[in-house]
Amino acid sequence: MTKNTGNQGRKPSVLDNFKPLLIDVALPLGSYYLFKDAFGTSTFAALAWSSVVPAVRTVGGLVRERRTNALAGLILVVNVVSLLLSSVSGDPRLMLAKDSGVGSTVAIGILVSVRLGRPMMTAGMKPFVVKGDAAREAAWQRLVSGAAAESMAFRSRERAFSVVWGLVLLAECVVRVVGAYTVPVDTMVWLGSVVLVTAMVIGFVVSGGLAAGPMERMVAAEVAAGRVERPEVAVAA
């Protein structure tokens, strides 16, 4: 005889873990390049059309749950800022600096989300900690809910992860704005990419050592201690 546990015991798939990133980030970004490059629309039109999904997700969250979808809301705000900045033209230094307007919006959004108790970068980090494993998913939920002994430390590391990325991205924006008005334009064209890549490397190293690594060890310890049971798929009669 087989015991059916239904969806409760279903192991989260890779798609389940990455769904927030796919819908709220990858889909709007992908649609922007699709409209702009494949369909040949203007930058303004591509930004407008790629804002549809995050706008629907944000409004839907407010209507159904009385709360905002953090990632979708951030992408929507970034698109609105990009729409406003897309009209900027003329001064080459201003053109170089305007990209920092989008980056700083992302950075400030991340820092505000921490202040509101909903660290935005968690959605991007969680799939790599949980690894699609049901027991690790259950351990994660216990840690974030306060039901585990290490919950307080876990939530502190979760906030730290977003704070690191918010500060790194904000610093990157400041450096690029300063460079746009102090470094020769031809140099800043390629130096801006170097600054971005450097900031990303610093973000990964610092956030990994300060937050993601310790959180992964806490999740593993919660599972190893036997406080999280692996779901049984079937029980033989």
From TrEMBL:
Keywords: Membrane, Transmembrane, Transmembrane helix. The chain crosses the membrane at residues 68-88, 100-117, 160-183, 189-212. This is Intracellular septation protein A. It comes from Streptomyces canarius.
